[in-house]
Specification:
alpha+beta; about 200 residues; transmembrane; membrane; 10 strands; three-stranded antiparallel sheet; five-stranded antiparallel sheet; Prepilin-type N-terminal cleavage/methylation domain-containing protein
Length: about 200
């Protein structure tokens, strides 16, 4: 059994590495090289202040970067939300016009929709497209620059809506059911069907 030395190691471990030292009767005992153990050491006031200054600069830089990232993210979210509102307004306008039996211009930038025994209106005021049915008002879209009905003889009438300066949509107005029946009767007569 090996004896423990004052360094916390056994004699056998000490004899394997280190520096020689004399131990009574002429024997040489190997001591380990001084192990460098990281210790917390005291620092001067100047070193502490410099470290605080560097840490403060790093902290402010990171926080400034986070602020810039948050602003960019908020702008992107706002742009996506505005685009979503514009797309939603487009589809609601499409469903209102295609559900109408007929569309008549009441005034410039003012259309009257008839369908299902009801009357409703599409009004363009201050670049906002508003739907009104009786006392019910709904904003369909903002940033609208054009609302008009184009009458065509060979094709269905078309409602032109300008969603911004770069996009104008044309919504076909369905013909009344009576006209569909007349057209179907003409087609059937051409084939010679008998009842």
């Amino acid at each position: 059994m090996c004896a423990m030395t004052g360094y916390g190691r056994t004699g056998r471990e000490l004899s394997q590495s280190g520096t020689p030292s004399r131990v009574g009767r002429g024997e040489v005992l190997w001591r380990p090289a001084l192990l460098r153990v990281p210790l917390l050491r005291g620092s001067t006031l100047v070193e502490t202040l410099v470290m605080m200054l560097v840490a403060g600069i790093v902290f402010l830089t990171v926080m400034d970067g986070m602020t810039l990232f948050t602003r960019l993210q908020a702008r992107r979210a706002e742009a996506l939300l505005a685009a979503g509102r514009r797309v939603g307004g487009y589809y609601r306008t499409l469903s209102l016009i295609t559900a109408a039996d007929s569309v008549c211009p009441a005034a410039p930038e003012w259309l009257t929709l008839y369908g299902g025994g009801r009357q409703a209106e599409l009004i363009l005021r201050d670049s906002v497209l508003v739907y009104r049915a009786g006392v019910f008002l709904d904003t369909l879209s903002d940033g609208v620059c054009l609302l008009r009905l184009e009458k065509c003889t060979a094709a269905p009438d078309t409602v032109q809506v300008g969603f911004g300066a770069d996009f104008t949509a044309g919504f076909p107005v369905p013909a009344p059911a009576r006209l569909y029946r007349i057209v179907l009767d003409e087609i059937e007569e051409g084939y010679g069907y008998e009842e």
